[in-house]
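Q: Hi! First time asking for a complex rather than a single chain. Here are the components, and I think there are two in total. Is that enough to go on?
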Amino acid sequence: MVFHLDKCIGCHTCSIACKNVWTDRRGTEYMWWNNVETKPGTGYPTKWEDQEKYRGGWEKQDDRLRLKSTTKFRTVTDIFHNPSGASMDDYYEPWTYKYADLFNAPEGSDQPTAMPISMVTGEYINVEAGPNWDDDLGGSPVYAANDPNLEGLTEVQRQQLFAIERLVFFYFPRICNHCLNPGCVAACPSGALYKRGEDGIVLIDQKRCRGWRACVAACPYKKTFYNWSTGKSEKCILCFPRVETGQAPACFHSCVGRIRYLGVLLYDADRIEDVARSEDAGLIDAHRSMILNPHDPAVVEAARQNGIHDAVIQSAQQSPVYKFVKEWKIALPPHIEFRTLPMLFYVPPMSPVMASSEEGMVKSVSDDFFHDIEQARVPLQFLGNLFGAGHQAKVVYALKKQKAIRTYRRALTVGDISMDVARRMLTEADCSPEEAEAIYNLTSLCTFDDRFVIPPAHREEAIEMMLDPHEHRASTGFGFVDAPKRGL
Amino acid sequence: MSENKRISWIDDEISAKSRSWEEFYRNRWQHDKVVRSTHGVNCTGSCTWMIHVKDGIVTWEMQGLDYPSLEHGLPPYEPRGCQRGISFSWYLYSPLRVKYPYIRGALLDLWKKARLEYDDPVDAWKSLVTNPESRTRWQRARGKGGFRRATWDEVLEIMAAANIHTIKSHGPDRIAGFSPIPAMSMVSYASGARLMQLMGGISLSFYDWYCDLPSASPETWGEQTDVQESADWYNAKLLAVTGSNLNMTRTPDCHFAAEARHNGTKMYVFSPDFNQVAKYADHWVSINAGQDGAWWMAVNHLLLREFHHEKQVPYFLDYTKKYTDAPYLVELHEEGKTYEAGQLLRANRLQGYADVEHGDWKFLMWDAESKKPKMPMGSSGFRWGTEKGKWNLELKDGKDGSAIDPILTFLNNSDAAVSVRFDDFGAGSSCFRSVPVKNVTTVDGRSVVVATVYDLLMAQYGVPRGLEGSYPASYDDAHAPYTPAWAEKYTGIGREDVIRFAREWGTTAELTKGKCTIIIGAGINHWYHANLMYRAGIHALMFCGCIGVNGGGLAHYVGQEKLAPGEPWGAIAFAKDWYGATRHQNAPSWHYVHTDQWRYEKEFTDYHTVPAKQQNGSLASGHAMDVQVKAVRNGWLPFYPQFSKNSLDLAREAVAGGATSNEEIVAYTVDQLKSRKMKFSVEDPDAPENWPRVWYIWRGNALMSSSKGHEYFLRHYLGTHDNAVAEDMAKDSVREVVWHEIAPHGKMDLVVDLNFRMDTSALYSDIVLPAATWYEKADLNSTDMHSFIHPLSAAVPPCWESKSDWDIFKAIAKKFSELVPPHFPEPVRDVVVTPLAHDSAAEIAQPSIKDWTKGETDAIPGKTMPSIAVMNRDYRNLYNQFISFGPLVRANGIGAHGTKYSITDFYDEMAQNGNSVTFDGNRYPSLKEGHDVCDAILRLATVTNGELSYRSYKNMEEKVGLPLAQLVEADRGVRMTYKELQSKPARLLNSPMWSGLIANGRAYSPFTYNVEALVPWRTLTGRQHFYLDHPGYLQFGEHLPTYKPKPLPTMYADLRFTNGNGNVKMLNYLTPHGKWHIHSTYGDNQRMTTLSRGIEPFWINDKDAADIGVNDNDWVEVFNDHGVVVTRAAVSARIPRGICIIYHSPERTYSVPKSPLRNNRRAGGHNSLTRTRLKPNLMIGGYGQFTYHFNYWGPIGCNRDTHILVRKLPELIW
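A: Yes, that's all I need. Here is the structure of the assembled complex.
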């Protein structure tokens, strides 16, 4: 999965596509399997990135990996209460309005209004938090100023970020990363979580789940949620009923910014633990190195040996994700220092040039046609904290390449920048003209089929393990829905 | 997605059986049916949506992806659809849904009582509205609860009775209908409009009222609005985004801008706040709010100096000669020792052209070859002349056909250089700059001094060319308008940035032949002087040949309404198939006058800077209401009611007085007006006989989201409570209007709202009718954001007791015809007054301003005063007419934007082979059902029927004299149907109704038709206008592009009666389009309230907030003379100091507390803080492109110059 942040428009269509289909029920109202955050900002749940608070993800101890949230001993003691787990206050109390009053209010001396009421209690609610509360820098002195990714910026730099000459924000859409080393799976005392072999989707078995909420605590991205009505936890299922039938997940499908890409990555699962134990600075390279070249005959052969369908291998070879992540190296995992090895990668965003402000007169600091990335408004350290485990190098690489490609296309289509300059910039950005064209094409001209390369699922084989598909064909849909039940 | 080879540390194998639970989610996804529809009001997105139905219930919607693709090299349109659209399904079964008819209890009780007394419902209604006590009873209850569920029969009877009574006692033009932008559900719009026009009622405009009409577009191009589809942004190599927040308002199109950047396009975003689209910018220009005009004036200064004067880029100069009015000659008038610019030199002033037809409307260029003035073809005089085939842009003399090589400047071959006065409105002074001129001898032997428009532009922009006068020495001259240094003090942006931008602009346009695009919107267009800011930007495009090319142009996106299949739709919507004259009303004037907002201000020159010296009787002085009255009397603008007398009684009177023909009825009417025995209603709007009486609102939120001066609506229309504290001020300022010491409260007898949700307008209406949603009916949808046409379809039937708008108005028509016989047993004659019309010969009606009421000219309908026609209305057959496509279109053909074509063969075939209606022995194509209407539109429009497009081009060829029909030759066989559109969206065809060429997947860019096929713009000269020479524009000093300062808060009268004591702050109040609603729709649904803050907050800068002790999410009270808003603060550094934002547009219906400042009454919505002001020079008419058309011309409902006070709410009271 790749999200191209430079293109994200922050519209939240993805969030609602998901909510409409999956989390509009009792107990799930507050869940946003897909949400979009403004950066800088504290996100949903508030300050989820702050693992001092939430203790999600893995940490290295004596060269071994352990979940920050728990030990064997603490799992038992924290079974009914996890002190670092997210509470209602960290999310928000879902609310609606007493709309019926507009129809039913008796004639009075003033206009009726529909008051806000809690969807949990049905009582009047003073709305003070929501799943997107700091959208577009709303409440910036409270929220944006406390973004954990501001670490490493000086106090002056922090203050400038909220002054006209440096002011900036961008959007950060988030779903479950369907990690290779998922904390949620490892943490579950019931073994209810699993990562599907056929497509890597991480699921919570709604029958086995006992609602311990260890997964909620262990996920550093806070992408598992407790359903207070069913007493089970739920999470993004990557719309597996759609993916299995060759359709993009709802949030991918509905992305009008056209920022989302989905495709197969083949990887070496034997190395997960080793990679997750790498030093912070080496994590991204290690993660990338696990991803195997689907064109390499040895990889293809090994995949076949593992029973992977040719169609899947073919998909892997056309995977847009492989290109962004591995070939072009411009898509980066979020907070890889949490060591869950996320399988969602982000192309970091460009931003407007900085300005100076003298005596109330604002001036751009650069006269270059496309400004240097160091002169962009989003601090490189901020992006490094978000996408580089605290290091800027990988982010700089991705941004330099994007800028070089823009310059190259400008030289080609207008000519006010010379082709010599453009080619030199491409070289400096580790990019050939052919690669530039390929990146430009997949960024700008991409069609739905270019963005989503989904292998056909062989459901007949999965079904066959339980039932003759011929019989399934005739009988599916006739059974009773076996809904999960609360408790044990 | 990842392919897992082996999970190293998870021990447990997942068995197939243990995964059977996965059916839990699979079952949720499974659904029964998928139907294509879209969202039908106000949003111009026009996205195709697949509506999913499960168990007979609409569960969710997902975007359709099957748009036809565009030409190679353009990104595709898929997917389209935003956060708002995808939340629509929430409404269908929500507690906000209007499921049944509702009526105000106070009215229902009185009605039931009256019905016991009167057998005839019309008599019953009469008894209620003529009794002040009962009428006031339900008026005062408006908006205050007490709704009762009613039956359809009950409410249909009340509405029909009210209509009949109003027609009978006051006249049909006291019944008004309002519905916003039709393009998104054009059949629904047409339903109510058709009923209004069949009755003789009023259709209120929307585009100008919303302040979305860019007046500079008619000023420059004679075009309401014509813009590129969003895919064409991708062709631009420099994008200047200003006053338009693409992420917010063009959500599904925004990707084209993002993707263009990766193709090397440079992007500038101009916005006072760091808005959402600023994140894409290479440069975010944090310009001071409303000062974009100053920026563009400085840009033009540089473009003219460096690219026109110094470098003389051939492409720019050729373009300017061929496609603009720059080479035309302007007369200069001597004023003492200096000169003033006057009107264009008319061809008939010169010997050689003295006798040409319409010589006042043909103009002159200086020919380089023959060294004398010549008269190019293509002007309005050629358009409306008897000789056809000379209305084109070929540079040939209209008399002898000789070639013209126009010169732009007399700089090197002048007879003299004279000192001309130019106004510097920013400094409040004048300056004198020398301009090269020629002396021309006129037919009467006088010598007149003429300059080219181009030389006047050079002087106005202050380009130093070695001439005398106060030209700036350099870009650093801060005192000379319009240098980069001059602009700094207004924009707050350093001169280096303007200089760099202008050079990049000019260079990009030179290298790409015009691929610079301005994307512009409400952030500019909602200011009082919007037209000037737009014109300045448009000039930068015109100077560099960016108009009429792909990748170039002005992309104005605010409420734009491209109803692509306009010709048949217009005929159906405005009942032109039955009646020849339509009562179209420009809403800004109507509301300004009828809600009495004119009473709350004095002279407009208090806040509108005009040249100091004004002649007696100048339009640029006095009260806006007086100009409004003149505009109606002169036929410049419509106004209804027309007369202080019932228009049916008037005809009856004329006949009683001996009139035997319609002509004689018209003559009688003129006589009554001339003798002043009868007055225009606008001359005494507060007299009861001139009030509007019945108002139908559908598809819109007329009482809240668009009602600038909302509290005055409550006071003067509804007669209920309001929170305004402003007092009358106009008494001593107005001359042309009767002053009533006390303004009436509650002019409206009945307000009806059709709605699927209980919005503010519904809450304040007398009757609320349950309307089908956009997933429950057949309709059509088009836009200018792309070039496809979409259906709306019924995924489920209209839920509960709702009906489609078409069926509701049809039912009202039916009940009307049932009740009508005792009251109108026979057809009646109705005298209909309409203004001088665009795209008609009235464009050459008034070469100068003359007032017939003062004896300055004869009163000639259609020439010196409005047009007057007589309609024979058949009220008994109103229902039959509603459901049949009438005979006038068969006989006369149809058209739009000045086109025309015959449809007789298609009409007969539809009546013969399609669904039909027969009455009085005649058979007509059926318009009975919504899908009938869809098919009639598709069958008869040029964009969906290739043969008719071909026919319309052929008709244009005769006028233009150049080949055009080849443009659609290849698509001549195309015939689209509603059924086909339900299966797949279709791309429109080339049509002469539109100015862009789109064959073979080419992106629509406006005016490519004009540039490539040499069809003139529909303006005075046929060219794009830099210069606006109407006498009124000269008086206002807007003949040349200029900069005018923003109205001062002290003079704009927002805070005259407001107590500003205490810990309060004054801020400029802005209401841009928001993220969580499309206007007011969606904003009240639970999805959007959850993703925002549960309320439409008040955005304020963090330091401004700190000054008054306001923290994030604190409740605040926002107030001025007009009303009050109570909401919560969103404190943010991204808002600059001195401004505040409440995004357009919240409802009063949810989460609104009471206001301690206003006696603890419920606070209002965003329009509680606004009041309408009309800019008077936008009222002129009868002159080239300045000629009225619905939603095309007239003053606009600006709102952005408003100021408010804000304080922390002392006490929260629900």
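A: Chain B touches chain A through 135 residues (CB under 8 Å). Let me know if you'd like any chain examined more closely.
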